[in-house]
Design a protein that fits this description.
alpha/beta; eleven-stranded mixed beta sheet; four-stranded mixed beta sheet; 15 strands; about 35% helix; globular
Length: about 350
């Protein structure tokens, strides 16, 4: 018997699927609108003035004026924004800086703005709702859900909050999920990861866990500790565990290990979140690849990976991508990243709709 909450989730999910399909089925028009909005909203910023946004009327104009940059090249603008200067890369001040450990440049500070923050939350929510709409499985909304994430404790400097992306997102869990959400706020604030996982295991063992979510390496540690403590497979400990949500890395090296730790088949949803934006999520259980988020304040460009280090590699938009080609993904966003090289490569598995897999990071 479905509870009121799980019964209501199905029509709500179908409504969300309808709106997702609307932009997914009009990809080029959607991206064109995103591009125009981004340029018009950033014309008066320092970056917009430096790059003559006022005279950008087409994608070709943009390519001429705005070169592809990595974090180091964008850093002079970011550093000034970190110090509290306004209207640098995007209007006003960022709400947050997500701190990430960059491989080449030490700590990176990635801006998150009033306009970009909701897109992170909405995409994560839509991933679950698309799953409900496709499968009709909604009973899990009555059980406990765990989101393994960094500490939600944020640091305030120059009127901006600093923290890990997963810790920032913890402040935006919708009200209707608050009661079901694990671990407790206190446990989530524990800084030392080993201590935190031990506390999470203790809290969750007696609960009816139905959804488990996190970066595979974190979840693996959690699962292993549960097995050590109980001597049982995770799927036997949590009989109603129905959905595993993961992202952040290539899952393939973990797959066999997880199947063994869980001990039975569990549906899963793959996500492609990053501090720079929530780029894609798995929209269908039977399809390989994740639906590229085209309506989330992110404009995408692509450069063939094997041409990337050429003198002037060709930048293309969505309409010119091909299946099975390795592309460096370049993004411009409503957080104020412009022609920004994430350092990730993607491959398209479908172009109707546009779905990607992360081929390298």
């Amino acid at each position: 018997m479905l509870s009121i909450k799980s019964a209501l989730a199905i029509p709500f999910a179908k409504g969300v699927r309808k709106s997702v399909l609307k932009w997914a089925n009009n990809p080029i028009k959607t991206q064109k609108k995103v591009f125009q909005d981004l340029i018009s909203q950033a014309t008066a910023t320092v970056f917009g003035k430096d790059h003559d946004f006022v005279s950008i009327n087409s994608y070709e104009d943009f390519v001429k004026r705005v070169p592809v940059r990595d974090y180091e090249a964008l850093r002079p603008y970011v550093d000034r924004a970190v110090k509290g200067e306004e209207d640098m890369l995007w209007k006003g001040k960022p709400l947050y800086f997500a701190k990430t450990s960059g491989t080449t440049s030490g700590a990176k500070y990635i801006p998150i703005t009033k306009e970009s923050m909701p897109t992170h939350v909405e995409a994560a929510r839509n991933a679950i709702l698309m799953y409900i709409a496709e499968t009709g499985n909604s009973k899990f909304v009555d059980g406990k859900m765990i989101f393994l994430q960094g500490s939600p404790v944020l640091e305030q400097k120059n009127g901006i909050q600093f923290g890990r992306l997963s810790g920032i997102v913890a402040h935006y869990v919708p009200k209707y999920l608050q009661k079901n959400r694990m671990p407790t706020w206190e446990t989530n604030c524990i800084d030392d990861w080993e201590t935190k996982v031990d506390a999470i295991v203790k809290e969750t063992l007696p609960e009816n866990m139905t959804v488990i979510s996190g970066i595979p390496s974190w979840v693996q540690m959690y699962f292993e500790k549960i097995q050590q403590k109980t001597g049982k497979k995770v799927g036997d400990v949590f009989k109603n565990f129905k959905l595993f949500i993961f992202g952040g890395v290539n899952y393939e090296p973990y797959r066999a290990k997880f199947e063994n730790l869980i001990g039975r088949k569990v549906d899963s949803i793959e996500l492609y979140p990053a501090s720079e934006g929530f780029f894609a999520f798995q929209d269908q259980q039977s399809e390989k690849g994740m639906l590229l988020q085209l309506n989330s304040g992110i404009f995408y460009e692509f450069i063939k990976a094997d041409e990337f280090f050429n003198n002037e590699p060709k930048r293309i938009t969505l309409q010119d991508v091909q299946l099975g080609v390795n592309y460096v993904m370049i993004v411009s966003t409503n957080a104020g990243l412009w022609a920004y090289n994430l350092g990730d490569t993607v491959e398209f598995t479908s172009i109707k709709p546009y779905r990607v897999i992360v081929s390298g990071a």
